[in-house]
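FW: tagging you since you asked about this chain on Friday. Here's the raw sequence from the shared folder, copied in full. Didn't touch anything.
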Amino acid sequence: MIYIGQKGDIFTDVTNLENSVDKIYKVRAGKFRRYPSDGLRQLLDVATFLKNFRDFFFVIVGVFQSYFILKKIKPDMVFSRGGYVSVPVCLGAKLNKIPYITHDSDSIASLANKIIAPWALKHFVSMPEETYSYPLEKTINTGIPLSSNFVKVTSDIKSDYRKKLKIKDNKKVLMLIGGGQGARELNNLFIKSSFKFFESIPNLYIIHVVGKLNYEAAKKDYSKILTNDQSKNIKIVDYTNEVYIYSGASDLIITRAGATNLAEFAIQAKPCIVIPSSYLASGHQVENAYLLARSGAIELIIDKDLEKDKSLLETKILELINSKEKLIELSDKFYKFAKPGSAHKIAKLIIELASNQN
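HL: got it, structure written out here
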């Protein structure tokens, strides 16, 4: 398998750790910056305009780079996950007459996939086909490909994860994860409430994945608020490739509404409080969360409500962590959205479609 990633993207470097990837190429790609919360003001922002203008030329450069890379390696099929780099790579594939497939993890198609959609062979999606604007005859609900490490967590598996993390079985484990880069405002709000959590929840243990950029600040802030004994019962993580162990060891997870994280926690059958970021351009996190909340699969908190009432998250956590019945109910309903075996299904479909093109 050959991976083409965006030059300068940290996740392209992380891919180096995957044994299944035989070779990695990097190309230029551009981001179209749009901020709904700024309204018309963003049109007048010179810095944003200049970055978008620059990135337009990055895309053009990336198309040429992708064209020559694909001409050289001659793949049977290109699979696009819908990030910024998908645009130059798939346009390069189109110019080489190489078929490609798009995949959308979110309930809203990404801007990149919308741009390249007209020439795609098929569209793989994670929600029911009718949720998207793609032609139904070209759309297949495959779910999201996940690491095989994510499985439904039984009591034995949970206990095993806790042994690895040196957490006692009698602990109530609360986990906050804000995504790969963390979520600064959510981190700060949670940290400010941490002393009350320890005071109100017997045998509490906190796992907090803060993001690399927020790690030092989070450590410093916790040290100002917690006692020495409380600090012994908190694990602050900057970045990890072993989310499944931390989430699997937890009783309740607070998370943003990134599609992959939600799919991972659904397969693990983990009760979640979901706080979608309402400031992302496409609004995909809000849509992801609403789809689940309408079925009672998650506890939903909206950013705007949290801004009005800073104690809302604190109240919801204390209400759920102390209710075994509610945690079980959320676990059962969330697991109904799990799609085990998605990665295998996607790989099988790609091979079949590629074979049919020859």
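FW: The longest strand covers residues 172-177.
HL: agreed, and The chain has a mean pLDDT of 90.
FW: great, closing this out.
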